[in-house]
Design a protein that fits this description.
78% of the residues lie in helices and 3% in strands. The chain is built from 14 helices and 2 strands, in the order αββααααααααααααα.
Length: 291
């Protein structure tokens, strides 16, 4: 009973610590974001007309949501294009961050410098900076034009996939810029693995390849799931996200207005939330199986 009481006390203390860390964000959310979000959700069911002195809201029901999928010829296409690009970008970022994290974890000279170099783009890559670099051609790789990669992709893949693949290749350098936080998470995860486990594996005669598959990768699985979730959230506000541009156009369009733009935003948010829930449930199910 004493052990159970001590365990419950420790669990409760950790819960309080978690609440304490989340409390500043929670207070800020309730103070500054809760009402605008709720109001935008209400606006998604209305037809919003902005007048010189007032805003008129006329109840429309689910008309905006029906229009988004049955009448709008652009929004569903851009949704599909974005998710096709995400299916390519997310694995690239997660695998790239895993490889770089493993490399930076090795005992090499100048390791802190290399860590800082990989994290610097996270600090400087605001939306305007990324757009400026892309407009100057910084996102492309020279060999794509030299070896006619675009022609190879167009002839090898169907039209519905050739476009997203070329869009990712055109911005591959900038895509890799979004790996800084994920690399830090991999480095932090590697520090949680006890060195004695590697020593025991070496005594048993395990090679590096076996150690990676049997020890390192299973220990990193929860953090790989975390990196996947973080990358999906990060891409949802990606500067080249066509859905955000579509919502912005609808907001200032006289025919649609803010009500339809709010419906688009909530539709997009709901789909991303469902994808995150599916990724987390699938990833953590594998983690629980390993445990």
């Amino acid at each position: 009973m004493r052990r159970l009481s001590a365990r419950m006390t420790l669990s409760r203390r950790r819960a309080y610590e978690g609440v304490a860390f989340v409390a500043p964000w929670l207070v800020g959310f309730l103070a500054f974001m809760a009402f605008p979000l709720a109001y935008s959700f209400y606006m998604s069911f209305t037809n919003v007309k902005v007048g010189p002195t007032s805003i008129e809201l006329k109840w429309k029901g689910v008309g905006n949501y029906v229009y988004a999928f049955l009448s709008d010829n652009v929004f569903p296409v851009e949704l599909m294009s974005f998710f096709q690009q995400s299916l390519l970008i997310v694995p690239i970022i997660v695998v790239f961050s895993l490889i770089v994290g493993l490399m930076l974890n090795s005992e090499t000279w100048g390791r802190p410098l290399f860590r800082a170099v990989f994290f610097l783009p996270v600090i400087f890559s605001t939306s305007q900076v990324v757009l400026s670099l892309f407009n100057r051609g910084a996102g492309r790789i020279a060999f794509l034009d030299r070896f006619s990669v675009a022609e190879i992709v167009n002839t090898s893949l169907p039209d519905r996939w050739a476009g997203p693949v070329l869009a990712v290749l055109d911005r591959i350098t900038l895509v890799l810029w979004y790996s800084g936080v994920q690399i830090l998470l991999v480095l932090a995860a590697l520090k949680t693995i006890n060195r004695t486990v590697y020593e025991a594996a070496a005594i048993d005669g395990a090679g590096r390849w076996e150690v990676f598959w049997k020890i390192t990768l299973p220990a990193l699985t929860p953090f790989i799931v975390l990196n996947t979730v973080y990358t999906i959230v990060d891409l949802s506000t990606y500067p080249f996200n066509p859905i955000l541009e579509s919502i912005r156009r609808s907001m200032f369009d006289v025919r649609t207005g803010m009500g339809y733009a709010a419906a688009q935003g909530w539709t997009y948010f709901s789909i991303v939330l469902l994808v995150l829930a599916a990724v987390y449930a699938f990833g953590m199910r594998n983690v629980w199986r390993q445990e």
